Amino acid sequence: MLKEKTFLITGIADEQSLATYAAKEIIKQGGSVICTGLGVSPFHKDLSEKAKAFLNKNFEDFKEAVHRSLGNSRVEVLDITLEENLDSLSRQLKEEGVKLNGLLHAIAMDKTIRNKKVKPLLEVTKEEFCDTMDVSAYSLIRLTRYLLKYGVLQNDASICSLSYIAAAKVTFHPYRNISIAKAALERITIELADELGRSHGIRVNAVRFSPFMGSKAGNATLNEEDIEISNRMSPLGNAAPQDLANEIVHLMRPKSRITGEIRHVDGGYHITG
Prior knowledge:
Elements: E1 6-9, H1 18-28, E2 32-37, H2 49-70, E3 74-77, H3 83-95, E4 100-105, E5 113-114, E6 117-118, H4 126-149, E7 153-163, H5 177-200, E8 203-209, H6 216-219, H7 224-233, H8 241-252, E9 262-265
């Protein structure tokens, strides 16, 4: 289905990341992937030794996870908040003749979540709010803009992002700040679907997945009881990461007419949760 197609994959933190499952299925379907992870770039300024050590370890862990799960798939350093980093990577891909047929946006960050505790919204600072919005939502616009600027993202490409039910409603497993950013991400998805569909024939969709503890993101707030409750509430039970990967590949396939969708891969949790 995806033979000779190339996709940019963001958001891999470890082998259990949802983005990893999606990348595996893309490769299984004949495609190739370029994976980006947070690390030290030439564009980081005035980093402390502690920050450098953190970023270097993060990139090494990311690279090892990619190579264990996805073979010798290409890895690149990308800080989604740095315009210079995005410009440099996009220009490099252009110079190498790389043509992307799609990208997976699976990046999110929220400093108000610590040790499975969520800060009340009224206590969230402007800086915390804007940082979360920048990384988790606006980054989709920024990344797409640079890939299009250099002609790397092709016409008829597919963009897919990861969201979840808390973007639309308050759940029994509480989220606050990140939920607002995901709601913005979904709205961005719809607006980009209109703009890019008309200008480049590019499709843009988002997928909401079941509560999942396997990834670092899910493990930050969820516990086993949450998973058990959502499993009971879902008519088909919780979806598995492979279900999500299958849907992403479905949305990535060429010549589709699916765009502007907020899809649910959650066993029906969204109709009861």
